[in-house]
């Protein structure tokens, strides 16, 4: 059974120098309160694993961590939407390991499934080769990548029951379900915590066996109000 804790309690578990997977894609399906608490705690020297660098208009998501110089390494597929991450990469302050997006998620899936490697021809002849070994199979060259796990996976779901079963809302599922399998400690930030038996079996996107801790984030209505206001402010600035 997953344990319900506060955002502050869970964020305090993440020590300086930890590797942290964070779910979401440009703010969609991102654990925003956990991110904000890591920023408030000043947790530093993090290896941040997320599909893209993200600092959407209005100033939220994982870009707060790079803006606060709390990240020493970023592993993902794209950084162009985060000015602080781009700057840190250009100056050498942040080590960036680029992965093709499909390779990125397959490496995480391999870690969660206990597989030994991801073998793919994608990236041959590019700088991606720096992060893999090259081997030939059946007369064709492939890149062989190690699995990608982390000390913590911090993910976002719509609902959780007290067993830790999670359900998601549409595309907010994105990387969250795969990351849930590959963290040594999995923390799920959710809109709502419900009683066991409330979730229908076909609603469950992540079984509770993967989830260690649940934290209550913004409710759906709170999030709509907060980010509707941010969106309106952003439009006024255009």
TrEMBL record:
Gene Ontology MF, one: transferase activity
Keywords for the protein's UniProt record, in alphabetical order: Transferase
Name of the protein in question: CoA transferase subunit A
InterPro entries attached to this UniProt entry: 3-oxoacid_CoA-transf_A (IPR012792), CoA_trans_fam_I (IPR004165), CoA_transf_BS (IPR004163), NagB/RpiA_transferase-like (IPR037171)
Superkingdom of the source species: Bacteria
Protein family: Belongs to the 3-oxoacid CoA-transferase subunit A family.
Keyword Transferase listed: yes
Pfam families: CoA_trans
């Amino acid at each position: 059974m997953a344990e319900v804790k506060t955002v502050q309690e869970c964020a305090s578990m993440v020590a300086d120098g930890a590797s942290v997977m964070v779910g979401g894609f440009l703010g969609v399906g991102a654990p925003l309160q956990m991110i904000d608490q890591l920023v408030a705690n000043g947790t530093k020297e993090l290896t941040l694993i997320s599909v893209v660098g993200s600092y959407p208009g209005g100033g939220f998501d994982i870009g707060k961590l790079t803006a606060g110089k709390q990240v020493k390494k970023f592993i993902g597929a794209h950084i162009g939407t985060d000015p602080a991450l781009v700057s840190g990469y250009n100056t050498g302050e942040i080590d960036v390991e680029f992965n093709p997006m499909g390779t990125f998620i397959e490496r995480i899936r391999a870690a969660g499934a206990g597989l030994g490697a991801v073998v793919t021809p994608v990236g041959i002849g590019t700088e991606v080769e720096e992060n893999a070994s090259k081997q030939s199979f059946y007369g064709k060259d492939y890149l062989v990548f190690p699995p990608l796990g982390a000390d913590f996976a911090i993910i976002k779901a719509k609902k959780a029951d007290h067993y830790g079963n999670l359900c998601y809302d549409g595309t907010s599922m994105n990387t969250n379900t795969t990351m849930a399998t590959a963290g040594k400690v999995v923390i799920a930030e959710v809109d709502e915590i419900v009683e066991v038996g409330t979730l229908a079996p076909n609603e469950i996107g992540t079984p509770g066996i993967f989830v260690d801790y649940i934290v209550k984030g913004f409710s759906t209505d709170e999030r709509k109000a907060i980010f509707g206001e941010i969106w309106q402010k952003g439009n006024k600035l255009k």
